[in-house]
Amino acid sequence: MSRPALSASRSIDILEFLATFSESAFTLSEISRATNINLASCYAVLTVLADRGYLTRSANQKTYQPGVSLVALGNAALKSVPIIAKATQSAHQLHRELGVAVLVSTFIDEEILAVVSLEDTEGRIAGMRVGERLPFIAPVGAPFLAWGSQEEVQAWIDRRSSPLEPWFEEDLHRDLKQTRQRGFQIQLRETSGPTLAALLAEMASGSHMAGYKGEMNRVIHSYDYHCRPPDVVVADELYDVMLLSAPIFDRTGRATYNMSLGGFPQKLTGAVLTDYANRLMHACLDVMRADRLQAGQYERASA
Prior knowledge:
- This protein is α+β, with helices and mostly antiparallel strands.
- It has two domains: 6-71, Arc Repressor Mutant, subunit A, CATH 1.10.10.10; 81-302, Beta-Lactamase, CATH 3.30.450.
- It has eleven helices and eleven strands.
- A hairpin with a 2-residue loop joins strand 4 (101-108) and strand 5.
- Helix 2 (28-35) crosses helix 3 (39-51) and helix 9 (196-205) packs antiparallel against helix 10 (212-221).
- The longest helix has 33 residues, at 270-302.
């Protein structure tokens, strides 16, 4: 396996860091510490990225943020990944209809990436902001694995630095099976133990700016708390829901994307939960239908 070009990997590390904290601006020394790139090399990479418009540099404060070239690059990418464009439209429609936070995410290698994140009217989000990444390590990312192979599920579990307790692994397999049967996942809010949502909020505020990836990995690897979803949703009972997630299958039949609803300010009745879940699944189906239709039109035009 060939080694990645050092300058390329450093550029990606810098861009991913700034995308994770896209609402903040950072100095050379802050970026250097956060990405573990020495000052001289970091400055050289930042200069090239700023010169090409991928970063903007504040002359007064000497700070850097994502630049307009990334916007153009993202818009161009939507043409090659049209399913994301349709998912974005469906996410906005759900957001307007329900007034709750909506998230579209995907996984790339061993990380989960937030592609679309729409806040509710109070600024609450569905777990992640655009550009944020999470390690794809059990128990994080379960909705992507519910339709995966046994090998994929085991690889997800094996990424942890220490083995799961038997009861925890059993709970995860039960959750994956339940998600397949329902067509969506119910993730309840943790009432005790560490909360991943709290850590993400701290990350967004910049509290874990230096070494943020290491801190996130440390927390997830040591995470041993699981709030089991209900076996049966009762219409008049209350549920403290953190996320509702449903898959978007790509043209190969793989659950490459997830759409989620979250940021709920209060507990949901079973009736509301079911209504939200049905609307979410229909939105995902609409995305897949539109993607298949476009693929068929392209094939006929190419014939």
